[in-house]
Amino acid sequence: MREDQVLYRIDKYFQNRNMSLEDKLFYAKLIATLDLESGHYNAETEKRRLELFSAHVDRLREKLRNQAV
Q1: By the 8 A CB rule, do 57 and 6 touch?
Q2: Residue 40: per-residue pLDDT
Q3: What confidence score (pLDDT) does residue 19 get?
Q4: For residue 62, which of 33, 15, 25 has the smallest C-alpha distance?
Q5: Stated pTM of the model
Q6: 56 CB contacts (<8 Å, ≥6 apart)?
Q7: Cα(36)–Cα(40) distance, rounded to whole angstroms?
Q8: What angle do CA 56, 57, 62 make, to 5 degrees?
C-alpha cells in the first residue's frame, strides 16, 4: 500500500474536517495498535495488513514531524 492510499483511507475514515492530519494519524495508529494487541483479527494475513498499515502510519507521522521542524 502506498502512502497516498494510506492517507486516503485515513481521511475517509476520519471525516471530521476539524481534525488535523496529525490527530488523524495519531488515532489511526492507536486503533491499529489496539487491534493488534487485543487480537482483533481473523487470520495471520489480516494481522500482517494491520502491522503494515501501522508501519505506514509511523512513517507518515515521522514525515509530518520532520516538516514541522
Answers
A1: yes
A2: 83
A3: 95
A4: 25
A5: 0.87
A6: 1, 3, 6
A7: 6
A8: 100
CA quadruple 5, 45, 29, 52: dihedral sign: negative
Contact (CB, 8 A) for 10 and 25: yes
Question: What element of type H or E holds 32?
Answer: helix 21-38
How does residue 1 score in pLDDT terms, banded at 50, 70 and 90? confident
Cell 498499515 locates to 53
Residue type, 11: D
Give me the residue spans of the domains in the chain: 3-68
- Give 8-59 pLDDT, tens digit per residue: 999 999 998 899 999 999 999 999 999 999 998 899 999 999 999 999 999 9
CA dist 8 and 6 (Å) reads 5
